[in-house]
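The passage that follows is intended for readers who have already worked through the single-chain material. We present the inputs for a multi-component assembly, then the predicted structure in tokenized form, and finally a short commentary. You are encouraged to pause after the input and sketch how you expect the pieces to fit together before reading on.
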Amino acid sequence: MDPAALIPTPDAIPVHWGWLQLLLQTTLFCHILLMNITVGTACIALVGYIRDRGAPSPCTELVVRAMPFTIAFTVNFGVAPLLFGQVLYGQFLYTSSILMAVFWLAIVGLLIVAYALAYFAKHLPAGSGSGRPAVAVLTALLLLATAFFFVNNFSLMQAPASWSRYFAHPRGLLLNLGDPTFIPRFLHFIVGAVAIGGLAIALWFRWRRSQGEDSADRWIGHGCRWFSFATLANAGIGLWFLASLPHGLIPPATSTGRLFLLCLAGGSVFALAALFFGLSNRAVPALACILVTLALMLGARSLLRATLLAPWFSLEQLPLAPATTPFMLFVLILAAGLALIAWMMRFTLRAMDGGGQQP
Amino acid sequence: MNYPVWQLDFAGGGLLVALIAVFHVYIAHFAVGGGLFLALAERKACRENSPAMLAYVRAHAHFFLMLTMVAGAISGVGIWFVISLLNPTATSILIHTFVFVWAAEWVCFLVEIVSLFLYVYSFDRLPPGRHRLLAWIYGAAAWLSLFLINGIISFMLTPGDWTETKNIWDGFFNPGFWPSLAFRTFFALIIAGLFGLVTATWIKDRSLRTIWTRFCSRWLILPFLFFFAAAIWYRTALPPELQEIIWTRMPSVRPFIDGFLFCAPVPVLGGLLLMMRLPAGLSRLLAILLLLVGQIVMGCFEFVREGARRPYILRDYLYTTSVARGDTGRLQSEGILAVAKWVRNRQITDDNRLEAGRELYNLLCLSCHAIGGPMRDIKRLAASYTPSGLDAMISGMHTFHPVMPPFTGTAEERRALAWFIAHGLNNRSDPPPARLAGKLVEIPPFDPAANRFVLVAWSTLGMRYVAEVEGLLSVFPPGNSLRAQLIERGETPTIVNQNVTLRYRVEHGFTDSDRHSTPTGDMLPEEDLFTADGILLLPTSRHGFDPYPVVAIEARDNNENLLAATKVVAPVSTEMGCATCHGGPAGPEEYTGLNRATALNILEAHDRLSGTTLLASAQSGAMIRCQSCHADLMVRARGEADRLNLSTAIHGFHAHYLRGREADACAFCHPASPTGATRSLRDIHASLGLTCTNCHGTMENHALGLLQQERTAGKQQAARLMAPLMPRAVVDDNAIVPRNPWINQPDCLHCHVDYQPPATDTTSNTWTAGEQELYRNRTDESGRLFCAACHSSPHALYPADNPHGERLDVLQPLQYQGNRLPLGANRSCSVCHTLDMNDELHHDNSLRTFRNE
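Having made your guess, compare it with the prediction:
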């Protein structure tokens, strides 16, 4: 069956697709960063609990305490790119979601349970006998399962050629495991998350050290090691991912190809720099470099998606039904909301700094 | 059409949406009202300078945070997920139309999260005023979220001018926006109080518990009047036609309206009760119960809102089937399988009918009807239908069920869908073509040289049917009528009705189990005619189903000397089509279309659609007779003056399900199918290829004629039934000639003008002027010999060909003239006349050679 015949007709967008793409990329950057912190720190805590046979450490305690917050913001910042993603690629995303509907909907349940467990673990007393390690480990596994299904969906939406499997399996139980890029793609995300999770731990303890906590140095090093080795591993996985792409998919001679190579090369250079800083326990410059890497890699991801969908679709084809007033209003509300958040944070954290306590 | 369908069976019909939505919406409203609750509760604690009271606020804030963040926020995402899986088309329209409203709502969500975290984790660390400010900010952001999402939710029910302008603000500030916002705002405050009670009644300290319980109770009482006023405002803001549909034509929504009206005031009463100092256990129990009642109120409201939207998901724009209203006509002509992207069967064949039906079900039904599941289970709802019955039901389902959309596909697709549901899922089938046993009848002797008398007899109706379940329901009671004329042969034959007795005797059987004796009796002499009415016959003999009982009639003088004898069939059939749609074990052995189960289903449907209580009456032992309310000339029942007569009521209703058909529409109910067990159409016209509609018109026109008459008589129900019916072959309703049932009928002379060969084979919209003009009451030119005496009953005119037995409907022609033709045809004048006749005394053209021998 011709995949083109299966692709739904898209609805009209209210502003030029460039604005929506900008919003998508920006909010996705925030979401991926937060997701990396959530999933990455959860994985590090998982390993820590297993390695130490459930014994708590400042690192695992930090992760358990912070988990409800990071999950909340990860979910919140996941809403926006999912929204803008649906506006630009709804015809692909809805379709792939339906093909794997059972798993896609299961994400809601997984997240509710993971989130509830995160609160539960936070309120359990520290110590191996309290059950906290088990709850934290379970939370981490649930988050990994969520990530697994997300990667399935976002790779399946880019593969209309495999959609005809629906006719034999219409009950929403399809996954994209047959895609040769799937495993390296998933590992690339998860190992990247572990790297940034390690860096987040290092940055937290760096701040604690600035508050006078002497034992924090050990955990800065711990976090940086996780960051560095995970980044190193992820470079290899990235190459695997690249090699798994169809040969000649993105010809380097094209403008898209050049841009793609530029993103990859730039991202790699900054990743190397971040690795260097990580190995020398310099968390802040490592953060700066890895944020650039993340932005460039998300750019490469977007170009890869455009290339994979190119036989059937390009964003320029989206019909436009202009309605700019709501867009302007949203920009105003966003600005007001961010200003309000900044103000609230400022007066609250200042007051809490005075109290010398942490949430 | 545009997207694949997640093939759910048990969990279909929106079960997943319902499960997540009812749960989420309650917590989401708690999240809105809870912000104000926290701000005011903290202000109260600060004013009274009570650390203990503040401790309660802190504990409640933690409870609030966890519930709204974990269950509320993620289940909100869950609703988004699930609607995009179950109705991606509608979701896509909502997302694309309101993308920046959603985006603004996301900003509010972000502000909510930040402010709530800061609020909950900064107790005792911020100055009280600043701390409360966080609660106010949270509350404002949460309410703004409601403001934004309310615009989209209310849009789905009342899109207003958006359907024309496509302007986002027309859609957002739709007619339902403000009342819905007010309603949800005040409901959110009540819900905040309900959840507050849950934590307040668990306070251990008695006096503190009392303080906070009373505080929370006020949240149940004070907003209630505004909440109720907003509910009334919301109702009045709905378009009048929508109000009419919800409150009068959607019985499925009624329990939720009642549930809402009954439960909504309960929190007020509970609040008043909790204002008193109750034992801790009792107040906790009451708090939990009130919380559940609140959930019921919310659930009922959302079900009413969702129900009112049906058959649309975006009212007046997009059906729940994901078909845009504007595409309906195109899909009905092109076919949905040809247009839908995610189907495998583009053409329907005998081999793929079931599979294509399944695909059609996925596209058009699954979004509302589960298969075997709790949400509007199609197996249960369609259990009473055969495939053809369901096909008819689907064709007209939107007329009397305003929750259903019109079928958007071709007739062939409709049949495939019905086949999948009725046969594929429910294993129902239409009766196979009947196998007729054949019936032999001995022809009575007649000696033209010796016999002085000729006895002719006929049934007044050639198609006589019975639909009655003893003790339960009578639609058409049994009671055949016979007519006979005794003619003394001669140069000028005379009709005899003095000093003779005509006695009829039905062959053995043909009565129900309570009436064992063979019907027999004397016919009543009238002027030129002998009559026998009310002969209780049923089509059952010892051989099984036999719709053509043979009646022997003898004429004797006062000394019991036999003057003449003949035979005639008295047709009677129970092969009604009721069971096709109304269920019941319609079996090929009995061919009884109205059984006990069928009757109960009919009564239930009548109650549901007409607001009667017939089922309860029947179940209490009363036998329901349609003619008690609906006039019926056939049984001389006057009915009730303001109700439609029976024929009009039945045809006027069922025509909506049988539109666009030809004679097959008639055979749905009447025993006229050419493959049925009765095959009532057996006369010369049938063998020439004419069908019911050649004389009676199509189902639509037939019904409209009856309705027109009743509308003229001022019966509003007739006008309502006429509105959705489009006449055929005429320009509009006004071209339909009004007619009374059993009086204004088609007649032979409408085609056979002046007894000549017809210029057309079709007459419709032309009726006899009165009862005396009916074929069965008309005579020849002499005014004494009835038309039917020589031509037999309607639908069995000589030379009739009865498939149950070749002689059955030509007994008298065979007896008197040795052929199958009308008596006297081809100059067989000697049947009655002892001289050859050269004048056409009976009617013009009567001496010519029979054309269709």
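Commentary: Chain A is about 75% helix and 0% strand. Chain A touches chain B through 72 residues (CB under 8 Å). How closely did your sketch match?
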